[in-house]
Every structure is written in C-alpha cells, then in structure tokens.
Design goal:
CATH class of one domain: Mainly Beta
Distance between the termini: 38 Å
Largest sheet: 11 strands, antiparallel
Radius of gyration: 28 Å
Number of helices: 19
CATH superfamily of one domain: Glycoside hydrolase, family 65, N-terminal domain
InterPro entries: 6-hairpin_glycosidase_sf, 6hp_glycosidase-like_sf, Gal_mutarotase_sf_dom, GH65_N, GH94_catalytic, GH94_Enzymes, Glyco_hydrolase_94_b-supersand
Oligomer: single chain
Helix content: 25-40%
CATH architecture of one domain: Distorted Sandwich
CATH topology of one domain: Beta-galactosidase, Chain A, domain 5
Keywords: Glycosyltransferase, Transferase
Number of strands: 45
Shape: globular
Strand order of the largest sheet: 1-2-3-10-11-12-13-22-19-16-15
GO biological process, one term: carbohydrate metabolic process
Structural class: alpha+beta
GO molecular function: carbohydrate binding; glycosyltransferase activity
Strand content: 25-35%
Length: 793
C-alpha cells in the first residue's frame, strides 16, 4: 500500500483509491457520497453522520439531519454495541457515543461511492460498510462484529436511523405540523420498516392531492426488539449519545402515529472466541410497500452484497481508466488519477444538494450544471449530453435561461435575468462537440421552454443576440439580477465587464461552428461582434494597471484604483485574458497586478480590499464578513480561471504555483478544516482571522474548472474539433510527464519530454512513429490506440 499526502488525520491510499481517516475527531465532518446518479444519494461522514434522499434533497429527504446542531453531525447511520457482562456500551463509528479516552482503534475509508468504518473496543471489532448499488433506489449497509477475545462474549447490537417527513424545510421549521403527520410500521414477517407520511401537494407535483410516498428500511434477520418512535428509543432529555433503549438493553416496540419516527432494531448476539457475524440492511424509497422486495431481498446476503459492491468498484474504474498521468507533482497525480474524476461525477449529480451546509434546496443551478458539463464531456460524454439536454430544453425563446430548476418537479429557481447564465451553454456545447466530434448535434431540433423548437445552433445564436441587445451606456452588457458574482447586482441596471469578456469568447466559439455549417454570414457577424465588444472593453474598462469590473448605473466604476474598497477584481483580469482581449504591455500589467494585490498562500483573492459593510449601490457583497466568500476570499472557482489565464500567458512556473496554492492535497487540515480529497468553494483570506479556512466542500464550480486548468492548460491536452492539440505550460524544472487519455474511443498514450527546461513551446510531435508538422494530433477513428511523443523547446 502506498500512502500519499499523509497528515495528522489520514492519508491517500492510491492503490485502492481510498482516503483513509485514522482519527475520528476531524476538524469538521469529513464526508463522502453514496450513489452514482441523481436519482438516489446518501451523504455520510467519517463517523456515520449524514442523510439520504431520493430524487430531490429538499422535497424527498428520506432521513433527517439537524443543521447547526450541538453536538454536530447528527443523526446518521448508527450502530451501538453493548457488553452484557459489564453493561459497557459504545458506538461502532465513534459517534454518537463519543469516546475521548483513546482506548480504541478506528479507521474510516472513504472510497468512490462507498464508506467503510472500522472500530475496535474491549476486544470486539466491528466494520461498517455503506454504499448504494448501481442503478438502485436504495443503499446497503453491512456490519460485521467479531469477538477478538479468547472467551465467549454476550453482546447486544442496536441499529438506529431517523426518518425525515420528506420536505426538508418543513421538517426543520414546521414542528406543529410534522408532529402530527408521521406514519410508519414494522412488518416482522419480512423484517422491514415502512415510513409513509403524506407529501405536500406542491411537492407531489399535483394540484390538490396529497401524495403518499413510501420509504423502507429492511433487515436481513429478525430483530429481537424494535423501536419506531424517537422518544421511546432515545428517552427524555437524552440524545443519540445515551439512548435509553441501549441503557435498558431492549427496544420497547411502542408505536403511535405522529411524533418523530425512527427505524431502530436490537439483536442479541452471542459470539464464541474469534467468531464473527454479519448483519445486512437496506434503506430507500419505492412507490408502494413491498415493491422493493424483489430488488432488495437477494442483496441482504453475503453473496448479494459482495456482488453489488464489486459492480460499484468496476463502475468507478471506467472513469479512472479514461485519464491517467505521471508527473513530478504528487498532489496533481493523486487528483487526476481518480479523485478529480470522482469529484466531477458526484458534483454533477449532487449539485442539488449542498451537503452539510443546510442548503438542500433541490434546485440545479443552470450555470453550475453547464460548467460541470464542460469538464464532464472529457470523461463521460454520455452523461454530459444528458445534462446538457436538460439545459437546452428549458432555455427561453428570447435566448435567456432560468437561474436554476428542479430535476424532480421541474420548478424554476427564478425566471431568468442573470446576465451570464445562458452563455455557459455555448461553452458546454463547444466542449461536447470538440470531445465527441458530433457536429451533427448542432442541427438537431430542440424545444424551448415555451414549446417552439429550433436547431441547437439557433439556441446558441439567440444567446448572443439576447446579450448584445441588453447593453448599457458604455456598450457593456447590463448586469441584471447579477452576473457570475451573485453578490454584485448594482441594482440590476449596472454594466458588467466580466460578461462582456465571456461574450467575446462565446462569439469566437460560434465562429468555428458557423464555418463548419457553412454559414459564412454568421461567421462574419460573430467575429465582428467579438471585435466590437473587445474594443469596448479595452476602451472603457482599462484602469491604468488592471481592468475595471463593472459600472454602476450612474457611471461610477467598480474595481477601480479610485475606489476605497474593491479596487481590483480577479475575474475582470481572468476573463480579459481568457477571451483574448488583452495583449502586450497591458497583459503583463494585469498579471503583475493580480500577483501584487490578490495572491496569498491559499490562492487568488476574488477582490481586494474587502468591503467593510453593505453598500446598496453595489449589492450584498459587503453583507459578508471581510475575507469570506465573495467579499475578498479566495473563491476557488475564480482562482481556477486564474490558473487558466496564467497558463495562457505561457508562465508555467506561476501557473503551477497558483494551482498548488488551492489544491486540497496541499492544505493543512487544521487550518482549512475541509477534506483533503475534495475541493471547497472558498478559503478565508488574509483579511479574516481564520486565514485559510475552507467552506462549502464538494459542490462548486471549482471542480470542473480546476480539472480543465490542470488537464488542458497545464498538461496541455486540449480537445479540438479535429483532434487533440498538445500545448503544455509546465514548470521549467519538469523533465517530462506522461498522460493516458481516452478520446473518441481511442486511447492516446502521450509522453512529453522537456530537455531544454522550458515552460511551453512544442519543438516536435511524433504520432505512431511519424513526425508531424505541428502540435495538432488529428483524430483517426480507425485507430483504437495511438502513441504520441512530444518534445518541448
């Protein structure tokens, strides 16, 4: 076993693609996800806290989770053991019956789609395994208990899970209602609990009817006693750390409708020396009681459980086989050889579910889903197209798009009006077509939200027309509700330099599409619009050493040296570079200003200095504490754009320095507090006392854009319409690296050598033994494997 990224809390087991947590008291709950699709998902921490949902985390939450609670990370998927000799009791996952004496052993292994937690105490060892089978609407649990002593042991095993009333918001804040709605039962003939409270009409997608969904909890063997009510299992003035049922050694079996319901079981467990026993459980949701039996019953056995677990591992291997690299940067290798791909998939499906933040809003952000699709296309074009199809179909006829939507109910998060939102659809389609070569998709008819249809190409051109038609006095796009930065709205009527730059890039991408479709007039039009907007940005937004970020309605600049706060914004510089607007001396000034004013140890700050308080003319950015989130934190999403922009200027050492600064692998977990194996949205900046503190893990545009930054702009393997462009930008000290990358069904084995110690510039490319005239490797669909040798210089 090879240990990588060893810290005081754990390490990466690169052989098994697991992060191993060696002590339970992590700075925050370090979580993982169960399930591989957006139909069913579970969130689980390193001490088994967490919850489960089906289809929608806001409207069809299966189990309860209490946010901002003390103790934190409660409840979850819990097991308790009790020694009948001395009545000592403990949790098999450390929480909730916390042991601070260090007289136990503990290990948690978070793998791709599963979590294993091992615990040993008083010569009794246990292992909990949790995962969701591929394509199923439930999760499986297994606990194995082993007597490591040389004498017989008499134990009692308890299992505990707490139901949610479906609607997460209602479950938290409408106690007078939910206390009278819960319904559940236990059917001993099939060892199964059912929970079936009615869902609200709005949630059930019906106009006036309440709808009875059903959740189940199935056991592999007959419990000796059960509990269905939380108050009867936990007891009065107690919590999960000292339940009365465990103290008494038995569940009371009481049932009455209403109150707070649980699925809790108790088993008498007699084990001889070195004897072990396994118990299996399943939890999920089906349409009616009993519908789950055919799927679930065969898996509540050792053979069924192991077979499904093997399928899960095989499923995730298909992603790790699509891209692999060997570079001098160990953190990059750990992420790009599995963890980054895993983050991408989980972020796509779980984007409706903000894990432990309490924002289980059930809405997929349009811009978020589109940006994830850009990176996802490179590892799973089928999933990318499925996600993209949803976005296309809810676009409005005018070209705008809603800010978000619910995959389950179809409800929109808002009616539109974010100036940047629709533009990411152009980026997503471009990325997908460059990856797959499916240019025919552009002429496919798709409906708009209102019902009329048009080709995908026309869907995209309407976005350009929409943005161009909504410009302010300086000729820049009107910001609307906001642009990418939701905390800057300028009363909805200011102008945004960032969207102007994004517009330029989108136009240039459409030029290539128009040329392929032989729409020469369109190509001229979009090229002209790109040049006009570039000229406007250069004319009105240059502030002397950097670009302005926006204009208020009265013409007051935002992001100017004349401002007291928010003098410089990162994205104004990022996107001027990415869109190809800034050149020459201004380009060097932009880079120098970013370095001087925005770079700190954990990345590039979003703006500086932070705003001390709320300014209604700018927006809610100042309502956030200085140094946090949009108000001057390292916003890792924008930081990734900064890495791309820097690599585009051929500064490999600087691009790698920026990449490493925000990579979770290199953070001190006692400072960041977040998991070393997933990205977070922000790090607190040097303007905040908790400098380096990470927030909002797992779900952020950081994940796709950092993947693009590392694979396409640093390692330089860029999909194009005709093939792969090899264009690295690496540290000068690198002697070389290798990449294996699947592209259009062909495996490309790429070896890059850097004998002259340069950052960029391709001297030669040899494809299958034949030297090419440039660094474009044209795809040959007849080949299933291609070897590429690249020399920089």
């Amino acid at each position: 076993m090879e240990k990588e990224g060893v810290s005081q809390y754990g390490y990466f087991d690169t052989e098994r693609n697991e992060y191993v947590i060696t002590r339970p008291d992590t700075p925050t709950p370090w979580i993982n996800h169960l399930g591989e699709s957006e139909r069913f998902s579970g969130v689980i921490s390193n001490t088994a806290g967490g919850y489960t949902f089906h289809l929608d985390p806001a409207n069809k939450r299966i189990t309860r989770y209490r946010y901002a609670a003390i103790p934190e990370d409660r409840p979850g998927r819990y097991f308790y053991l009790k020694d009948c000799e001395d009545n000592a009791a403990w949790s098999t996952t450390w929480q909730p019956m916390v042991n601070f004496k260090n007289d136990f052993s503990y290990e948690c292994r978070h793998g791709f789609g599963y979590t294993k937690i091992s615990y040993a105490y008083k010569d009794i060892a246990s292992e909990n395994v949790y995962f969701a089978p591929i394509g199923k609407d439930f999760e499986l649990w297994r606990i194995t208990v082993k007597n490591n002593s040389q004498r017989p042991r008499k134990l009692k095993l308890f299992q505990y899970s707490e139901w949610c009333i479906w609607n997460m918001i209602k479950d938290h804040y409408n106690a007078q209602s939910i206390a009278n709605e819960a319904r559940s039962c236990f059917k001993p003939e099939i060892n199964t609990f059912y929970h079936y409270p009615y869902a609200d009409p709005a949630v059930s997608m019906k106009d006036s009817e309440f709808f009875a969904w059903v959740a189940f909890f199935a056991c592999s063997c007959n419990p000796d006693s059960v509990s269905l009510r939380r108050d009867r299992f936990i007891g009065r003035y107690r919590d999960e750390s000292n339940p009365i049922a465990v103290e008494k050694g038995v569940c009371d079996g009481f049932y009455a409708g209403g109150g707070y319901h649980v699925a809790a079981t108790q088993y008498n467990l007699d084990l001889g020396p070195n004897e072990e026993r396994a118990f299996f459980f399943a939890m999920g949701s089906y349409d009616a009681m009993g519908d789950e039996r055919a799927d679930v019953a065969p898996l509540l056995t050792a053979g069924g459980f192991d077979a499904e677990f093997a399928k899960l591992k095989k499923y995730w291997k298909t992603y790790t086989d699509k891209f692999a690299c060997a570079t001098p940067n160990r953190g990059m290798d750990v992420f790009l050889n599995g963890w980054h791909q895993y983050n991408l998939i989980m972020d796509l499906w779980k984007t409706v579910n903000y894990s432990y933040t309490g924002w289980g809003g059930g809405s997929v952000g349009y811009r978020n889903r589109a940006q994830k699709t850009i990176a996802l296309a490179t590892i799973d074009p089928r999933l990318a197209k499925s996600a993209m199809d949803q976005l296309i179909r809810i676009q409005y006829e005018c070209g705008d798009a809603p800010g978000g939507y619910s995959p389950m109910t179809g409800a929109k998060a808002n009616a539109g009006g974010f100036s940047d939102v629709p533009i990411y659809l152009i980026y997503a389609v471009t990325a997908y077509v460059q990856e797959t070569g499916d240019m025919g998709l552009l002429t496919t008819e798709y409906p708009f939200f209102e019902g009329s249809t048009a080709t995908l190409y026309e869907h995209l051109t309407r976005i350009i027309d929409w943005i161009w038609s909504r410009r302010g006095p300086h000729g820049l796009p009107i910001i609307g509700i906001a642009d990418w930065n939701d905390a800057i709205n300028l009363n909805g009527k200011g102008e945004t330099q960032m969207v102007a730059c994004q517009f330029v890039l989108a136009c240039r991408q459409l030029v290539d599409m128009a040329k392929f479709l032989k729409r020469d007039n369109d190509a001229v039009k979009f090229s002209g619009l790109a040049e006009k907007m570039s000229a406007i940005v250069n004319e009105v937004c240059w502030d002397g050493e950097w670009y302005l970020r926006a204009f208020q309605l009265d013409g007051t600049p935002v992001g100017s040296h004349k401002n007291t706060y928010g003098k410089i914004f990162l994205n104004a510089q990022n996107w001027a570079i990415i869109a190809g607007i800034v050149q020459g001396e201004r380009l060097e000034q932009c880079l120098a200003s970013v370095r001087k004013h925005l770079f700190i140890k954990c990345g590039l700050k979003l703006c500086a200095p932070a705003y001390p308080g709320y300014d209604e003319k700018i927006g809610p950015i100042g309502s956030m504490v200085p140094g946090l989130k949009e108000n001057g934190a390292v916003f890792c999403h924008a930081h990734a754009w900064g890495v791309i922009a820097t690599a585009m200027t051929r500064k490999g050492d600087l691009a790698m320095e920026y990449y490493n600064a925000a990579l979770p692998y290199y953070q001190d977990p006692d400072v960041s507090t977040t998991e070393p194996y997933t990205f977070c949205q922000t790090y607190a900046s040097d303007e905040h006392p908790e400098y380096g503190l990470g927030r909002l893990h797992w779900h952020s545009g950081t994940i796709p854009w950092t993947y693009i930054a590392s694979t396409q702009y640093i390692l330089g393997i860029k999909p194009q319409f005709s093939g792969l462009l090899i264009d690295p930008c690496i540290p000068k000290e690198w002697k070389g690296y290798t990449v294996k990358r699947e592209y259009r069904g062909t495996i490309y084995s790429i070896e890059v050598s850097n004998p002259d110690g340069v950052s960029s510039g391709v001297k030669s490319v040899i494809v299958d033994g034949k030297k090419t005239g440039n660094n474009m490797v044209v795809h040959d669909k007849a080949k299933k494997a291609v070897t590429v040798q690249v020399v920089l210089g």
